[in-house]
Specification:
Strand order of the largest sheet: 2-1-3
Structural class: alpha+beta
Order of helices and strands: HEEHHE
Shape: elongated
Number of strands: 3
Number of domains: 1
Number of helices: 3
């Protein structure tokens, strides 16, 4: 997003990951927002309900979905 610099200034203690669609850190999933929020939502659907359900939703939204092709960060700290 265009406001990353402003966000970093407002929250200097946070580590902001740029150029990724979403971050899954323990119990939190955060996205870059806007259309990228679909990536995080489909990822969550796949985690909770499986790939087949996520693929069906993606097809209905006319989105090609493959989590391995989406830039994201997954951490288990």
């Amino acid at each position: 997003p265009g406001d990353i610099a402003k966000f970093k200034r407002a929250y200097p203690k946070l580590k902001v990951h740029e150029n990724v669609s979403f971050v899954h850190d323990r119990r939190a999933i955060t996205s870059a927002g806007s259309a990228k929020s679909y990536d995080a939502a489909l990822y969550m659907v796949e985690l909770l309900y499986g790939k087949e359900v996520a693929d069906g939703i993606a097809k209905g939204l006319v989105i090609e979905w493959n989590v391995s092709q989406v830039k994201h960060i997954q951490t288990n700290r």
